[in-house]
Structure formats: C-alpha cells, structure tokens
Design brief:
The chain is an alpha/beta fold. The chain contains 18 helices and 13 strands. Helix 9 packs across helix 16 and helix 9 packs across helix 17 (about 395-420). The structure holds NADPH dihydro-nicotinamide-adenine-dinucleotide phosphate and (2Z)-2-iminopentanedioic acid. NADPH dihydro-nicotinamide-adenine-dinucleotide phosphate binds near residues 164, 241, 260, 324 and 375.
Length: about 450
C-alpha cells in the first residue's frame, strides 16, 4: 500500500474517535504525493509517521473554586507537537468542546502554519474544556491561575510559548502571566498576546484579522482585483472576526455579516462595529440586541439550517472570511457562496471548511486562502513579540504593521510559487501544505532520528 494511505489507515485505527485530528492530517497528507514522488528520502526517513506523532502530550487536572464555593474540575491540555524549527508555539483554547482530538488537530495545523511564516517557531497547542461563558471575572482569574500552576512546568520562553485562541484573550493571558511570575520569580516572554504595559507587542491583538484581510488582498491583487467597495461576509464575533471587520472598513470594503454561537447578523448597510463590540463585551452578550438600534438588520438563529450549513454563507458577498471555528462551512455552504458570485475565501479560523468543502473549492477558480496561510498573521506577530521581549525592546504599531504586511505577502508568495512548482498554479492548499511540510521535514531530517 502507498505510504500516504498506509499512514492514514494506521492513524484511523489508532485513534478512531479523533475525527478532527484525522481530518487535519488527511487534508495535509493527501496533497503531498507529488513531493513524496520527487523525494524518496521522506519515505526512507519515515517522515510522515514521525510528523503526525506529537513529541509530547500533557493532560492535567485543573481544580478551582467557583463563586458558590463549589469545587470545579476541568481538563487541561498542552500538545508539544513539533520543535524542528523552534520552540513550540501556538495558542490556548478554552471552550467546552475542547478534547484531545481538537487540540491535536490545532497543534498539527500549527506546525505547517508556523513553518509557512518563515520564522523560527515550532508547533504546539493547548487549552481546556472550561467554558468561560457566564463566568465572573474572579472565576476566570481563579481558573487561569490553577491552569498555569500546572502548565508552568512545561513552558518557558525558549521551550514553549502559548498565546490566545477561542476563549483566551488579553485578560486570560494576563492572569496566566501573573501566576507564572508568582511561581517562578521570572518576568519573561513565556506567553504572547500580553498587555502593552508588561511586554506585549503593539498590534498582536489585531494581527490575525488584519493579516487575513492582507492575505485576501494579496490573492486578489494577483488577479487584478481588490476588496475596495465590495460586500464581505464575516463569521464569528470574537477577536479574529472583529479585527477582520475593522480592516475591511479601513480598506474601503463593506462587511455585511457577523455571527456567534447563537446566530447570524446581516446588515446590508454594513455592520455597526462599535455596537457589535458593545454587545459582545457584555457577559453572554447576544447579537440579537443589534436589532434594537438597526431595525433594517436581520438576525437568524444558529439552528436555521439544522441539516447542512449556516445562514452566514447564504448571503451574496464578493469575499468570505470564516472566522469562528472548525467545520463551520459545509460543502453546501461553499456551493451557495460560489453560486452567489463569491470570488474569494480567506480563512481566519482554523480548519473552518469541512473536507468536502475544501475539495469542492479547489475545483473552482475562486481565490481560496486556507487557514494555515491566511490566518498566520497572529502567530507571526507573536513571534515578533518574542523577538521584542528577547531584546527588551518595544516596536511601534506602524513598524509591527509593516512587518505583518510583509510577512503575509511572503506567505502568499511562498504558497503561490510552490503551487506553480508542482503544476497546480493558484492552488494554495497544495502550495501551502507542501511549502510548510518541506521546511519542517527537511529540518527533521537534518536533526536526525529524534
Ligand atoms: P474568540 O473567542 O475571540 O471568538 C470566537 C468567536 O467564534 C465567537 O464569536 C464565538 O461565539 C464563535 N464561536 C466559537 N465556537 C463556535 C461554535 N462552535 N459555533 C459557532 N460559533 C462559535 O476566538 P478567536 O477570534 O481568537 O478565534 C476564532 C478562530 O480563529 C478560531 O478558529 C481560532 O482557532 C482561530 N485563530 C485565532 C487566532 C488568534 O490570534 N486569536 C490566530 C489564528 C487563528 P460566542 O461569542 O457565542 O462564543
Ligand atoms: O491558531 C493560531 O495561530 C493562534 N491561536 C495563535 C498562536 C500564537 O502563538 O500566537
């Protein structure tokens, strides 16, 4: 049996319940055949089996006391997936759906995304099944402190440097940093996404969303197009989504949707960003309240398409920015987007398109920027934060933004040139995967069987 199918079959048999992890691995491996054919040493060195096996996986108990003095228990994770290119780097997710499959899929994607940035960072991911929704600030603080009490044994500025992801923003990073410092007596760059007063980088919070829009502009520029004056569909209403909306406005585009775990908001005039921010900054804030200020907007509850798909992708728009979560865009959604004239999809979220949607999109001539390339701006600016911390410097917002624009352009160029090299011009799934994989695999081979 061929190397790729053998590896996938082994993986499926080893972890039959880890469907998201399997999906992420299959999506990468199924694009590598032309590279493997060209370079038999990847099989000789058994790189596929080595690269899908995390170097280390840590699971731990997180015990904390809630506001009713009840003892709560959650599960904590850190998967240190691959350190061929640098210290493990990747976010922490706090969401009730977090399990080993989710963290492994995110860690696996992170390896190739980080490699594509061209920077010296390995891949890792972590988090907990803790649900921050409806929790008080004090509960969040106690949870973060307990989480870091264990995590600190495994992280460090040249070992493993976590950051945010779903449910983890500047506030959570701050509480974890405080606890790390208390336990270790070390004020150092062990986390990124820190506050600007204590070692954070200007522009990190906005970097994923802004970078994703820059990536879309790069794809479109090559086709003689741009986002200016165009209607855009954005899903999610968190860090990535709202900074995407912000940058779209800055470039003269019109974002007409946002969404969250309860529903989709559509406003043909363009979403009112300050109002969305105000609604979402309330504990458990809902987008439905938007209609009180804008009666001409439309709100659709999340379960409007119970069988297949999501309301947000059924509106006509020139470009789509899935920025909420994995598998939020089905094949039926992708078909609807294309049918309605969508020309560009840039993934702010990790693996937002189901496998069938990815396959379908590659057969169309839509400009499709997979997450490993399009949302790499966040982790890239995280690495700039590490560099600033190491030199005890703080760069201006303008300098960071300039670097971010340059990095997003380089990522696009790398993915696009590699697609061309392997005879599939414009296919950034193939180009991105091969370019990222080749860098990691070559470093692994040089470092020997470790
Ligand atoms: P946030 O927690 O700030 O926002 C997440 C948003 O997505 C919220 O609006 C949330 O809804 C919604 N959402 C989460 N889970 C679901 C779900 N199961 N169904 C529907 N909606 C959901 O997270 P981020 O913006 O940081 O992350 C969004 C995506 O971007 C994730 O895929 C993440 O992995 C990816 N990403 C993030 C980076 C970063 O720097 N933060 C970097 C690269 C990628 P609600 O408000 O109701 O909870
Ligand atoms: O998915 C991602 O790239 C992130 N959540 C950001 C990782 C980081 O270390 O900044």
């Amino acid at each position: 049996m061929a190397y790729v199918s053998r590896t996938l079959q082994n993986l499926r048999e080893s972890f039959p319940a880890q469907t998201e992890f399997y999906q992420a691995v299959e999506e990468v491996l199924e694009t590598l055949q032309p590279l493997l054919d060209q370079n038999p040493r990847y099989e000789e060195q058994n790189i596929l089996q080595r690269i899908i096996e995390p170097e280390r996986q840590i699971t731990f108990r997180v015990t904390w006391v809630d506001d009713n003095n009840t003892i709560q228990v959650n599960r904590g994770y850190r998967v240190q997936f691959n350190s061929a290119l640098g210290p493990y780097k990747g976010g922490l997710r706090f969401h009730p759906t977090v399990n080993a499959s989710i963290i492994k899929f995110l860690g696996f994607e992170q390896i190739f995304k980080n490699a594509l940035t061209g920077l010296a960072i390995g891949g890792g991911k972590g988090g907990s099944n803790f649900d921050p929704h409806g929790r008080s600030t004090m509960e969040i603080m106690r949870f973060c402190q307990s989480f870091m009490t264990e995590l600190r044994r495994h992280v460090g500025p040249t070992t493993d440097v976590p950051a945010g992801d779903i449910g983890v923003g500047t506030r959570e990073i701050a509480y974890m940093f405080g606890q790390y410092k208390r336990l270790t007596k070390r004020f150092e760059g062990v986390l990124t996404g820190k506050g600007l007063l204590w070692g954070g980088s200007a522009g990190r919070e906005a970097a994923t969303g802004h970078g994703c829009v820059y990536f879309a502009e790069n794809m479109l520029q090559d086709r003689g197009e741009s986002l200016e004056g165009k209607d855009c569909l954005v899903s999610g209403a968190g860090n990535v989504a709202l900074h995407t909306v912000e940058k779209l406005y800055a470039l003269g585009a019109k974002p007409i949707t946002v969404s969250d775990s309860r529903g989709t908001l559509y406003h043909t005039e363009g979403v009112d960003l300050p109002l969305v921010r105000a609604l979402k900054s309330q504990p458990n804030g809902s987008l439905e309240g938007y209609l009180d200020d804008h009666a001409d907007a439309e709100y659709t509850p999340i379960d409007a398409y119970p069988d297949d798909g999501h309301a947000v992708w059924r509106y006509p728009g020139y470009a789509a920015f899935p920025s909420a979560t994995q598998n939020e865009l089905t094949r039926a959604d992708a078909e609807a987007l294309v049918e309605n004239g969508c020309q560009c999809i840039a993934e702010g979220a990790n693996m937002p398109c189901e496998a069938e949607a990815v396959h379908f999109l590659q057969e169309t001539d839509i400009a499709y920027g997979p997450g490993k390339a399009a949302n790499a701006g966040g982790v890239a600016v995280s690495q700039l934060e590490m560099a600033q911390n190491a030199r005890m410097q703080a760069w201006s917002r303008e300098k960071v933004d300039e670097r971010l624009q340059g990095i997003m352009q380089e990522i696009y160029q790398r993915a696009s040139d590699t697609a061309e090299e392997f005879g599939v011009p414009g296919n950034l799934v193939v180009g991105g995967n091969i370019a990222g994989f080749r860098r990691v695999a070559d470093a692994m081979i040089e470092q020997g069987a470790v």
